[in-house]
Amino acid sequence: MSFYRSLLKNRQIMIGGGIVAVLTAAAIFAPYIATHSYWQQNYMDALQPPSTAHFLGTDNYGRDIFSRVVYGARTSLLTAAGIAAVAGFVGVFLGTLGGYFGGWTDRFIQGLIDIAWTFPTLLLAIALVVILQPGQMSIIIAISAGWWAQYARVMRGEVYKTREEDYVEAAKAAGAGNVHILRKVILPNAVPSVIVLITTTMGRAIILEAMLSFLGIGVQPPTPSWGAILSNARDFISTAYWYITYPGIVLSVTVLGFNLLGDGLRDVLDPYLKNQ
């Protein structure tokens, strides 16, 4: 019970979690929140400043920026969640194998981790997206190819530390198989560390997706993306401040929310982990 009280008392978790919750709700209910079509062009309304008709103004095609930002939240969060799922699954699986079985299995997986760490994430993502063709799924695969090693390293350390505990030895002595020990004994103890890693990397995943879309090799039109919106707004900074300002603020606040949530969870879970 004290653990849940610690979560509720942590300001970073409350603020960061609130930001993430609001953006998640916006992404889920985008069709009901958006005031206009995110793709329909109307050149008669091009570059209109914020008003009651268009809360955040319009872009150079006359599209409502508020609606595009709302739908962009869906794009960014789905992409980040996909990256966390793919990279997390691969990394947790390989890290668990290496940490539990050790020996040549661990050395082989450690070699794969070292190779993955040698490639800069952004450059690797750009190369893979170009090869796979730009798109949301390509971004998920490309970024996951460089990020799985983070999950594997964290998971390996957690499993390696836990496998020597007395309760693991007791489970072995009782005749429990490796699969049962991993699934029922070791993995539950590693979940807090993985949760912290997911929350701290989600913000970075959103930034990377925005960077790739900004470069024109991310999510393709007409699907809205925060990075693509910022890229299109570059030529209108001096004439239409709202075009780049409001999407930029939303992107910044989103990343801040995930960072605060991750830092807060780390503060709360570290003492919790020490008591395991």
DSSP helical segment count: 11
CATH topology: the name is MetI-like fold
- What is the name of the CATH architecture? Orthogonal Bundle
- From the N-terminal CA to the C-terminal CA, the straight-line distance is 15 Å
Structural class: mainly alpha
Radius of gyration: 22 Å
Shape: elongated
Helix content: over 70%
Kindly report the name of the CATH homologous superfamily: MetI-like
Question: What does the main sheet amount to?
Answer: none
Q: Please, how many domains?
A: 1
How many beta-strand runs?
0
Q: Which regions are unreliable across 5 or more consecutive residues at pLDDT < 50?
A: 271-276
CATH class: Mainly Alpha
* Percent in strands: under 5%
Question: How would you sum up this structure in a few lines?
Answer:
With 276 residues, the protein is mainly alpha-helical. The protein contains eleven helices and no strands. Helix 8 packs across helix 9.
Write a structural description:
This protein has helices spanning 2-9, 11-28, 30-33, 65-101, 103-118, 121-132, 136-162, 166-173, 178-214, 226-233, 241-274. With 276 residues, it is mostly helical. It has a single domain, classed as MetI-like fold (Orthogonal Bundle). The two termini are 15 Å apart. 38% of the residues are buried.
